Amino acid sequence: MHLTSLAQEPVDGIAGWAADLVDTLGGPGAGLAIALENLFPPLPSEVILPLTGFAAGQGVLTLASALFWTTLGSVVGAVVLYWLGILIGRDRMHAIWAKLPLVKASDLERTEQWFARHGTKAVFLGRMVPIFRSLISVPAGVERMALPTFVLLTTLGSLIWNSVLVLAGYWLGDQWEIVGTYVGLLSKAVVVLVAVALAAYVAVRLRSRNQAQHRRTS
């Protein structure tokens, strides 16, 4: 059975594009879609993965193939971003950081120290957090995490995330879009938390700078 022959099949937007890939290429198409999702985070895994599970439920591909190819795609996309982090490098990152307003070199140094202590957990758990799923690969490259360790942690974290969403689409059938709704809410919550944290950071930095200027002029 072809996915595009189903009445419930989405024909527009990202869902339609992903469905065409899966319908045409099967498992490798799903893997390609997820690899691109890693490189271009606006492509939502909460649409691609449940849709792939739905396709598996309809016999377009097997469930094992869906999990294998989507996890492989996740790892390939993450490794590309890891190498991007290596190309940026620590020195260039510090040079870029030094040009940013309201930040200090010590902030980046503390972040590096934190990553040195908790980087393995950050990479593993980050694969299961919307938005950070892709971003976490870059600092891993900048900090030169051992590639075998990075690949292993990325594979395990991606397999868990992919399995949850693919299986949800598989079990929900033509109601697979429900998954995207709930994961979308989670993504928005993450964005709000990041925005609040960033606003608090900027407020603290502005207050510290104003206090320093006041001391110099008094």
**Would you report the number of β strands?**
0
SS-derived structural category: mainly alpha
In N-to-C order, the SSE pattern is HHHHHHHHH
User: Termini distance?
Assistant: 78 Å
How does the overall form come out from the CA principal axes? elongated
For the CA atoms, what is the radius of gyration?
21 Å
Tally of DSSP helical segments: 9
Strand residue percentage: under 5%
Low-pLDDT runs of 5+ residues are 4-10
Roughly what is the average pLDDT, rounded to an integer?
78
Textual characterization of the structure:
With 218 residues, the chain is mostly helical. The chain contains nine helices and no strands. It has helices at 13-25, 27-39, 45-57, 63-98, 105-126, 132-135, 137-142, 147-172, 177-217. Helix 2 (27-39) packs antiparallel against helix 3. It is elongated. Residues 4-10 have low confidence and may be disordered.
Essential attributes:
single chain; mainly alpha; 218 residues; 80% helix; 9 helices; 0% strand
Characterize this entry briefly.
The chain is mainly alpha-helical. It has 9 helices and no strands. Helix 3 packs antiparallel against helix 9.
Show the helix and strand layout.
Blueprint: H1 13-25, H2 27-39, H3 45-57, H4 63-98, H5 105-126, H6 132-135, H7 137-142, H8 147-172, H9 177-217
Helix pairs in contact: 1-2, 1-3, 2-3, 2-4, 3-4, 3-8, 3-9, 4-8, 5-8
